[in-house]
Amino acid sequence: MTVGVEALSAIDGVLIDIDDTLLDNKSAIRHAISVIASAYLPSDTDIDEAAAYFRADRHGHYRAFTRGEIDSRTQRWNRAKDLHDHFGGPPLDDEAAVAPWIAAFDAAYAAGWRLHDDAPVFLAALDALALAYGVLSNARRAQQVAKLAAVGLSAVPLLVCVDDFGYGKPDPRVFLEACRLLGTEPSRTVYVGDEFDVDAAAAVRAGLIGVWCDRPGAWEHWTEADVEGSGALRVESLAVLASLLGPRSTP
Predict the structure, then answer these.
(1) For residues 156 and 144, what is the distance between their CA atoms, to the nearest angstrom?
(2) Is 133 in a helix, a strand, or coil?
(3) What pLDDT, on a 0 to 100 scale, did the predictor assign at position 247?
(4) Could you tell me which of 93, 112, 135, 137 has the fewest CB atoms within 10 Å of its CB?
(5) Which CATH architecture group holds 5-24+114-245?
(6) CA 117 – CA 181 distance, rounded (Å)
(7) Ramachandran region of residue 57, left (φ > 0), alpha (ψ -120 to 50) or beta?
(8) Statement: the pTM of the whole predicted model exceeds 0.85
(9) CATH tag for 26-111 (out of 1.10.150, 1.10.4030, 1.20.5, 3.30.460)
(10) Residues in contact with 152: Cβ distance below 8 Å, sequence separation at least 6, in sequence order
(11) CA–CA distance, 244 with 238 (Å, rounded to integer)
């Protein structure tokens, strides 16, 4: 946790991911999949396994959406079909079949939105340090506005979402646009997110200070070896990052 720490003492602003960084998206998805499984999947379906499968999105539909190759509804439909194919659910081959599935998933997903415990503490630390901050997300703006409202963060500026340009992270342009809207220079701006590649490493490539919030048990795709040489900083929580942003004594 030493790479880039010294740079954190001279920043002007912080950009923050929402899902699995501020908000416990993993738990929200698990709740949604539990509702879906009770209605659509075999009774012996392991909910944790099904939620992990859906979240992993092994065929990359969500990444295709963030690249602007398909729309949001199509990526959800494709992920729903993948889930059913893998766990033995009924076919979702037409709009009549998938529309109630998406409605049930969306309602259950929204019911599961909760902040990570350290998110309010982190934002309070940014306020105390008088740092500008806002959020940059690879999800749809309407959904993220609803999320922030549901968890009491409507006042946090939602700067850039995937539908603003038709593409999202890791494209460097979205990071630079978020910095422009925040009013900070990229080299003096932190971006913190839960995915190493599209968040921390991509932020570094765009000229920002990239921080990977690697919460225990969140993802299994990346390791310390990935971080080494990337220029990104790894922390295990927003609380750790907040402590690194605090005042430092002069050696």
Answers:
(1) 11
(2) strand
(3) 57
(4) 93
(5) 3-Layer(aba) Sandwich (3.40)
(6) 28
(7) left
(8) yes
(9) 1.10.150
(10) 115
(11) 10
Contacts of 54 (CB under 8 A, 6+ apart): 29, 33, 79, 82, 83
Structure tokens belonging to residue 205: 């490539």
72 with 140: CB under 8 angstroms? Answer: yes
Backbone angles phi and psi of 233, in degrees to 5 = -110, 135
Instruction: Return left, alpha or beta for 183; rule: phi > 0 is left, psi -120 to 50 is alpha, else beta.
Output: left
| Residue 223 Ramachandran class (φ > 0 left, ψ -120 to 50 alpha, else beta) | beta
- Nearest alpha-carbon partner for 19 in 171, 158, 222: 158
Q: What is the DSSP letter of 115?
A: B
* pLDDT tens, position by position, 107-152: 999 999 999 999 999 999 999 999 999 999 999 999 999 999 999 9
